[in-house]
Amino acid sequence: MKRLSVQRQRILLGRHSFCVGCNSVEKKIYVHLNYTFPCVRLLNATHQIGCQSSLSGNVGVLHELESEENLDWVLTSGPNPPYMVILESRLFTRSIMMKLKEGSGRVAGVVVVAPNINPPEGFSPHTACPNDNSGVYTENYDPTLAHCNATVWNPLGNGLAYEEFDFPIFSVKDDNDTRVIRQCYQDHNRRVNGSNPQFPLCAMQLRSSMSAVTNTATCKRRNDINFSLTPDRVCDELGDFNIWASSRPMNTTTKGHKEFESVVIAAARMDSRSFFFDIAPGAESTASGIVTLLAAAHALRRATQEAPPNRTILYTFFQGETFDYIGSSRMVYDMENNQFPLDLDNIHSVLEVSQVYILIYLGLWLHSDPVSRKNSSVKEEVEKLVNGLKSASAGLNVSVDEPDVSQPLPPSSFQRFLLARPIPGVVIGNYRSSFTNRYYESMYDNAEYLNVSYPENMTSEEQLEHFPETVKTLTEVATLVARALYVQAGGNETQLANITADPQIVNQMLYSFLVRANNSWLQQLVPTDFTNHLADRPTNFYVGVIQYFSEPTTLVQYMLANMTGSVVNVTQEDCQKQREDKDDDQSKHLYTYMWVQGAAPPNSTEREGFCVRSTVHRSIAVSPAFELHEYTTSNYSTWTESVWKPITGRIFLVASHDLEMLTLGVGITVLLTSLVLTYVISSKADILFSSGREPTSATY
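Structure tokens predicted for Nicastrin:
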């Protein structure tokens, strides 16, 4: 059994495995699809979501759905079910998909043609109340605020990504594959003058067989059943690593409470998702927050070194937040159990950067928790943080304001800290009472939506120097966040004028996340052995499973190290051994050392590497439920991803059922006839193959 990796190569390996030993006959029969993105199965404590095919794949006659009214052909009147339905993205709606789900006996699968431009009406396959039941707002905390009773944060959410479909659903790009599919449909399957199409018909096979079923408890139990030396797994827990760094060195060897240490957590999330596996661009929902916080950390590097504030700023990037706050719940759990270099008593306050892409006429909103604010000390500190943000906006083209103080927090990592204890905190976002993001957790939350575009005639190097309007607005937001963090940490306000985000850094990060990671700027910041992982496409922000390399986590780790660290003059060997020299055995407890390949000087192809010393660290971002073996708990995330067989798609011509039966009948007749002839010939062999004996005394 085979799992395909979170990276694109997983799909490619599964998809192209058919070419090993393939012959010319197969090539004449099948046309294989190259760039397909499947919907896969996920499971939690109570149920399963996603899609799957049969073990050998689902096969159906192609039918292009032109409108919702055209569904009758697929569901009732079409003479050749089951059908493989092809539809444009505008028809990929909850109404249509649920009708196809209800008539799944006549539906073999669905292929969604991804458009080249985003749908103007918006689309979000997430729920209207993201991470419901996993945040702080429960019946025990405040029944009036539970289940988005007060505020529906994602009004466009249709919940499709949380439905279960018993047939495969693939997305294909509107390119050569799509043209081949449509041409096959036009030539063989389209009705002409109201008459039904004649055989042979164009058919498609989609294969995405999932191993896990029912829920996480069931699949984890099946994982533990070992009948061989190399047992097959049926599911793996979602998770990866959180990335964090402190504004001043901190001993990471000793865990638990640190005396006289007070930290301000500056947080952002690192993950996103969409309906289809391997497509999670997360431009506004994720990248805008990451870039803003990274740029703020870079702007604070000099100020925190030359005029250190009283408190430590802890830059924290949480992974797996889409799936019931995996990363933040694990960090809180580790703090409560003395498995982290700090504990909850060390936390002074929290500032979380949510979706912060703004247009010139929009501003930012400062969200806080109305329940914890009933505590006078919490309320006082929240008001200080809010006032600090408002003061920091002076002179910037960014307006900030508070929504109604009775309004609950939006979905945020900060909620998991509040579940543990009342902590002062603010979530900053570009929305007041509902998300302005029209493509939340969808494949359309991309560079186009953030207006990150470049003239077509520009080279990659020229694009890195070209600043879209989005760069300017996010630079302003990053400056605001940096200044507010500095004041919240107890820094001197006279330093604020020196704290300004760099638009070039913002542009380079946006380009790396939303356009392509494989660029000259990012190549300088990573080790040589990592450059092969830099892709010529946007970053996939899906969290994936813990066993596999995660693209956004590693990119954030190297970016943060270069944004906040410093270059030290040590050898490559000492750098990789986490020391300044051969006698140094203390620095590794305070710093992390990374040898990066750097840039090549002019007229040279040899890069000049260097060592970056920083306070960047990784901490595990796997739900505590899996450490506690509590697979049915509602206290922590229990999401797992099914293991699957190679994922493939192909089209071919299929004969009528009558012709297939006739061919089968003729074949059986020939087989039986040959068996009878063989028996008769074998039984009469002595007669049929005997020859007369020659006389013994024959003379010549």
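The mean pLDDT is 91.
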